[in-house]
Design goal:
With about 550 residues, this protein is an alpha/beta fold. The chain has 2 domains: about 1-95 and about 315-530, 3-Layer(aba) Sandwich (Aminopeptidase), CATH 3.40.630.10; about 110-305, Glucose Oxidase, domain 1 (3-Layer(bba) Sandwich). The protein is built from 14 helices and 21 strands. The strands form 3 sheets. It has a 17-stranded mixed β-sheet that branches. A two-stranded antiparallel ribbon has the order 7-8. Strand 7 and strand 8 (about 160) form a beta hairpin.
């Protein structure tokens, strides 16, 4: 077994030398004894993390009475109060050395209330014939025009400009994606096969330019509406949540809509020959616009509600290095209710939230026994994770504890289940991100596991080629993108993910307890080691 362990470590260091993130599996050497000394404060406090107490917390957090803990809703408020009262009773400090444990966050919750397109009195439907992204449009009840200008590619470049000598103020324009190309597929703008920034798929540059020129509405001809819908499904099919009060936010874009070829043909109508002539000229690098007499009405009316979310934050102040911070995080929000169905989110992420409560208790026990950590440990339960990592984004934009003095984030998101790969061996955990910014962090994690817990550490989802991209999908990411090393603990996927069936009865509390102990020992080492961990990786 030791040989296997040594070979895996060797493979890690070899792969690291070629700039690849570790993506294998570390099997501990179980011939060596696990350190478990009842006289040792670290071991004693770790033992306070129990399956029974984890179950007690999770039965509350994932109960029907909390209505799925959706950000901005009553159930989330109840969950935040439960967690806040718990850490208050433990004796943790709140924000700015107070007993206030909640960081309030304003969110704007918006969705399309009314959106239709009428072309010459023919109605076209949203999500079928056209798409309008709510975060890229201001709310307007009706845009009415009897004229649409075909403006080629909507480009203004020294080598090719659709805007030259053209007045577009308060106009509705129709444009194509991409840029003009020669017969050999060479770009007129780059003079090469490579395309210019005007061909960027998100249309940002073209839309900002149109706004600067005073355009009222941009219609973008989209050849694959279905694909665009799949890429933006979450924004388009549900409500869209943003940080802050954005109800009256002024955008850097004009209102803009992606239309199918069906809608484009209806707009063009009898101007088809002129459009074909214009496109032929553009293929020769000569812009040409076409003004079309077309009656068109579009509604882009958004319903917007201002909501409040809360990050729950508790502090255990450090002894000798109290201005250096170890962050331990988990999100406590979930999907809420859809009709009468409740998404309780026992694993996602009641499991991480409950584990974080037990970790806070274990560290506070150490404090009460006279073993205050050298560095400050900050426990954070984030809201808004399911809405796009918004709670952690707000925290990193408005940090109560300075980011430049934050050493690491330990993030816990789904640690209560066993995935299909480990159905017969629940003694495992997936680690994501441990080696991406700090080789010290990775080594500490491995050493602590070997010494105290001896679980199988699986780095499959840490691979740069992981198609799931889990590294970018939980709250640690907002720390990592600020250059702060992070580990994300994860049990893997299962069929109950984001379903009403993610309930307490399916949680493996014994596995959850052991994972909690691994995380506790890792935090203990990070909070008490003499030197800060080195940041020797580059964020990607």
């Amino acid at each position: 077994m030791y040989k296997i362990f040594f070979i895996l470590l060797l493979l890690f260091f070899v792969s690291s030398s070629y700039g690849q993130y570790v993506s294998g599996v570390t099997v501990p050497d179980k011939s060596k004894p696990v350190v478990s000394d009842p006289l040792d404060i670290q071991s004693r406090c770790a033992k306070s993390i129990s399956a029974a107490t984890l179950r007690d917390h999770l039965r509350i957090l994932a109960s029907d009475s909390l209505q799925g803990r959706e950000t901005g809703q009553k159930g989330m408020e109840m969950a935040s109060d439960y967690i806040s009262n718990y850490i208050y009773n433990l004796g943790l400090k709140g924000l700015f050395n107070s007993t206030a444990f909640q960081q309030n966050i304003a969110f704007t919750y918006s969705k399309w209330a009314d959106t239709d397109i009428y072309v010459n009195k023919e109605r076209f439907r949203h999500l079928w014939d056209y798409l309008a992204l709510p975060d890229k449009n201001e709310s307007q009840k009706a845009i009415i025009t009897n004229e649409v200008m075909f403006l080629g590619y909507g480009i203004d470049d020294p080598k090719y400009s659709d805007y030259k000598n053209v007045d577009v103020k308060d106009k509705v324009i129709l444009i194509n994606r991409g840029e003009p190309l020669k017969k050999d597929s060479t770009s007129y703008i780059t003079d090469a096969k490579s395309l210019s920034e005007w061909s960027n798929q998100d249309m940002e540059k073209k839309l900002i330019l149109a706004k600067e020129r005073g355009v009222k509405l941009v219609l973008i001809i989209e050849n694959d509406i279905k694909k665009l819908l799949e890429l933006n499904r979450k924004k388009l099919l549900g409500s869209f949540m943003e940080l802050g009060n954005t109800k009256d936010k002024k955008l850097v874009y004009p209102n803009n809509v992606y239309i199918s070829s069906t809608v484009a043909k209806a707009i063009i109508g009898t101007y088809e020959k002129k459009i074909l002539k214009a496109r032929k000229k553009m293929s020769k690098g000569k812009p040409m616009n076409v003004v079309m007499s077309t009656d068109m009405v579009i509604n882009l009316f958004k319903g917007a509600t201002l909501l409040e979310g809360k990050n729950v934050i508790g502090l255990i102040e450090g002894k000798s290095k109290k201005d250096e911070y170890v962050i331990v995080s988990a999100h406590y929000d979930h999907l809420g209710k859809k009709g009468d169905e409740i998404f309780n989110g026992a694993d996602d992420n009641g499991s991480g939230s409950s584990t974080l409560m037990e970790l806070a208790k274990a560290f506070q026990q150490a404090v009460l026994e006279g073993s205050q950590p050298e560095r400050s440990v900050v426990f954070i339960w984030f809201c808004g994770e399911e809405k796009g990592l918004l709670g952690s984004e707000y925290y990193t934009q408005n940090p109560p504890f300075p980011l430049n003095q934050t050493m690491v984030d330990i993030n816990i998101d789904m640690v209560g289940r066993i995935d299909e790969k480990y159905a017969g061996n629940p003694d495992y955990i997936y680690l994501i991100g441990s080696d991406r910014l700090s080789s010290d962090l990775h080594k500490i994690s491995e050493d602590v596991n070997q010494k105290y817990v001896q679980m199988t550490l699986d780095y499959t989802y840490n691979s740069e080629d992981d198609p799931n991209k889990f590294y970018y999908r939980s709250d640690h990411y907002n720390f990592a993108k600020n250059g702060i090393p992070a580990i994300f603990y994860f049990n893997g996927t299962h069929s109950d993910y984001h379903q009403t069936t993610d309930d307490v009865e399916k949680i493996n509390f014994e596995a959850m307890e052991k994972r909690g102990k691994l995380i506790f020992h890792t935090i203990w080492e990070l909070a008490n080691r003499a030197e800060k961990i080195r940041v020797d990786g580059i964020f990607k």
